[in-house]
């Protein structure tokens, strides 16, 4: 079981007035007998982990007013994890000096935000028949850094082990971050953490923890199931103290918080700390960095995608918070889903709804939800890991979020094999202002591209993501709109490198093509990145470009596909399939083959099926038609192979 950011060792410092028995306590612990000859100061002692109750190596450090100056003592206080102030129960002056000298001195030795926990130790209990605990409890109320108090005897060995156990506990399971003594209540930070834990464990989203959910919680935190009898006893305690802590035989949030309050009041801080640390919290109740972002090695040229387990988790999360069961997340459902996070990873209205597919009401569907996570995993995988941690991915079956991520093989291997193993491709859409890049990108998200005509687009939407079919396999295609501020501005490496580049020009503007021609020559002519030229506004008359070569001539010279004419009015989306196919088969003319297959099938359908009236529902006729299409496709393939043979420097 992982314990996030728990101390790997404990350093205990004993301070107090001369003659209270500091050194005797240390020597009695080590030798298990009271020393006859006591030096001014004991040497530092290290106790191995296997003989301490908390299984943590412990250093015990003595102090001496005779051998140390105040400066040296102050340095020791700064180095230690906990301070034990020892007083003699038979000497009232040593008790009074706790508040008049020692606690102020310890405070002055540390910064206000780094106060050391303190344990008050009353030694020589064998000499009196009364207790000083009541007086010490008053001190605890005035000084919140005082974690606990204990009375003991170095001579009779009474409570010696307990004293050092409380000191260890003050470091490993401190009270002050969890509980406010004066208010007899949990701290706001502790409440916030426990509320998040409750919501994560509430698998069915009914704001209750039923027996099944409580058992999963128990196993995750303590590696053991809850026995039915103990579970009933816990519920009875909650019901007795908080009537609305139990509802329908399940634990409410109020009941859950009360239970942890009770643990702390009874001195069982370790129980609450075990829960908090299991869910990624540090001793300051922040989320541990290693918990949120476990180290992930990504070789150069590799990319990151969601694994099957990651996808399963996100689908289940979506379905849990789709409270009305309409297959979409409303703004409110989206907000509740991310309530266990500091904030949502993206804006609902200006990001996910603009960059991913939505339904006809503008709400985020499961498909759009998965697309947005796919995008974030590719461009910012640390953020994906972080938010999976906030959302509780590693609470039940998964130890860390790393199992949610698939690291693809390196791109150089894809190039060598002339086929990509990836399922997510990044396409950079580059072109001059006014060329129609944004409309082209937005067309990926909608079924009817005509609906985008004459629409105003927000220029700050950089990415659009959707799925496309490549030879029957579903792939994610991400279009990144590269913002060109000035025509002569150089592109940065992160704006150039991608799986496929789409260079866009306005076919109706004679000055448009020159920009992308220069972009290609400068950045892509010698690269291994597949490139396609796209002429937008294909529904308008194509004009001659004011450039040395016309688009067709340019593409022919550089062994590129002929320019693809694109128009929102045509409502044809084969461009997106082309882009994904070129990314899937880098350095190979698969895009040519796909194009010609498509044209051959279209031609065969138009000249034969319709001519002979074969557009029917008869399965036998369709079977024959399928054979004909397959034959035409095979012929087209070999024609293309023959066409390719004289080409020695194919781009794909």
Radius of gyration: 35 Å
> Biggest sheet, open or closed, and with what strands and sense?
6 strands, mixed
**First-to-last CA distance:** 50 Å
- Summing up helix and strand content along with how strands pair, one would put the structural category as alpha/beta
Task: Tell me, rounded to a whole number, the average pLDDT.
Answer: 87
**How many individual helices?**
24
Portion of residues in helices? Answer: 40-55%
How would the blueprint of this fold be written?
Blueprint: E1 10-16, H1 22-31, E2 45-47, E3 58-61, H2 70-79, E4 82-88, H3 92-109, E5 118-123, H4 133-142, E6 146-151, H5 160-172, E7 179-180, E8 185-186, H6 188-201, H7 211-222, H8 228-241, E9 246-247, E10 250-251, H9 253-265, H10 269-278, H11 289-292, E11 304-306, H12 308-321, E12 328-329, H13 331-337, H14 348-355, E13 364-365, H15 366-379, H16 381-390, E14 405-407, H17 411-417, E15 424-430, H18 437-443, E16 463-470, E17 473-481, H19 493-496, E18 500-506, H20 513-524, E19 531-536, H21 551-557, E20 564-565, H22 574-584, H23 590-609, H24 619-644
Parallel strand pairs: 1-3, 1-4, 4-5, 5-6, 15-17, 15-18, 18-19, 19-20
Antiparallel strand pairs: 2-3, 7-8, 9-10, 11-14, 12-13, 16-17
């Amino acid at each position: 079981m992982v314990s996030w950011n728990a101390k790997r060792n404990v350093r205990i410092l004993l301070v107090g007035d001369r003659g209270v028995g500091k050194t005797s306590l240390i020597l009695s612990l080590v030798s298990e007998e009271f020393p006859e000859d006591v030096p001014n100061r004991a040497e530092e002692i290290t106790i191995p982990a296997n003989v301490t109750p908390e299984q943590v190596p412990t250093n015990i450090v003595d102090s001496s007013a005779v051998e140390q100056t105040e400066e040296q003592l102050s340095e020791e206080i700064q180095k230690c994890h906990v301070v034990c102030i020892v007083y003699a129960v038979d000497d009232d002056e040593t008790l009074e000096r706790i508040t008049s000298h020692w606690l102020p001195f310890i405070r002055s030795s540390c910064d206000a935000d780094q106060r050391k926990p303190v344990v008050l130790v009353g030694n020589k209990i064998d000499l009196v028949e009364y207790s000083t605990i009541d007086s010490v409890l008053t001190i605890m109320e005035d000084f919140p850094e005082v974690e606990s108090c204990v009375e003991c005897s170095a001579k009779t060995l009474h409570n010696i082990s307990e004293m050092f156990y409380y000191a260890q506990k003050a470091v490993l399971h401190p009270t002050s971050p969890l509980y406010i003594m004066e208010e007899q209540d949990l701290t706001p930070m502790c409440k916030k953490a426990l509320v998040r834990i409750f919501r994560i464990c509430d698998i069915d989203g009914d704001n209750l923890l039923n027996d099944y959910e409580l058992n999963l919680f128990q196993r995750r935190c303590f590696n053991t199931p809850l026995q039915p009898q103990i579970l009933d006893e816990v519920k009875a305690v909650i019901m007795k103290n908080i009537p609305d802590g139990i509802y329908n035989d399940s634990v409410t949030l109020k009941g859950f918080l009360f239970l942890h309050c009770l643990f702390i009041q009874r001195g069982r801080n370790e129980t609450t700390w075990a829960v908090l640390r299991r869910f990624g919290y540090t001793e300051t109740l922040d989320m541990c960095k290693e918990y949120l972002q476990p180290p992930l090695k990504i070789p150069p040229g590799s990319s990151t995608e969601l694994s099957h387990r990651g996808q399963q988790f996100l689908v289940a999360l979506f379905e849990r918070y789709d409270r009305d069961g309409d297959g979409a997340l409303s703004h409110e459902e989206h907000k509740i889903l991310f309530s266990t996070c500091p904030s949502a990873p993206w804006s609902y209205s200006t990001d996910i709804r603009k960059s991913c597919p939505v339904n006809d009401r503008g709400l985020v569907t499961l498909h759009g939800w998965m697309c947005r996570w796919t995008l974030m995993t590719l461009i910012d995988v640390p953020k994906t890991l972080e938010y999976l941690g906030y959302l509780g991915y590693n609470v039940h079956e998964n130890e860390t979020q790393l199992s949610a991520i698939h690291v693809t093989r390196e791109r150089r291997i894809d190039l060598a094999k002339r086929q990509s193993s990836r399922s997510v491709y990044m396409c950079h859409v580059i072109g001059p202002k006014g060329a129609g890049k944004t409309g082209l990108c937005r067309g990926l998200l909608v079924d009817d591209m005509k609906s985008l005509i004459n629409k105003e687009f927000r220029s700050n939407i950089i990415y659009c993501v959707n799925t496309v079919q490549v030879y029957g396999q579903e792939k994610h295609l991400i279009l990144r709109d590269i913002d060109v501020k000035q025509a002569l501005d150089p592109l940065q490496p992160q704006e150039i490198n991608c799986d496929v580049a789409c260079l866009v020009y306005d076919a109706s503007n004679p000055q448009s093509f020159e920009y992308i021609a220069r972009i290609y020559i400068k950045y892509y002519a010698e690269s291994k990145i597949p490139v396609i030229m796209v002429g937008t506004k294909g529904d308008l008359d194509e004009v001659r470009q004011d450039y040395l070569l016309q688009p067709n001539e340019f593409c022919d010279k550089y062994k590129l596909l002929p320019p693809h004419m694109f128009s929102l009015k045509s409502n044809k989306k084969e461009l997106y399939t082309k882009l994904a196919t070129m990314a899937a088969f880098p350095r190979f003319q698969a895009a040519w083959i796909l194009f010609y297959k498509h044209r051959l099938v279209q031609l065969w359908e138009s000249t034969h099926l319709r001519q002979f009236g074969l557009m029917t529902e008869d399965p036998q006729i369709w079977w024959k038609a399928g054979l004909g299409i397959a034959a035409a496709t095979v012929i087209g393939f070999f024609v293309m192979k023959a066409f390719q043979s004289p080409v020695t420097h194919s781009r794909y």
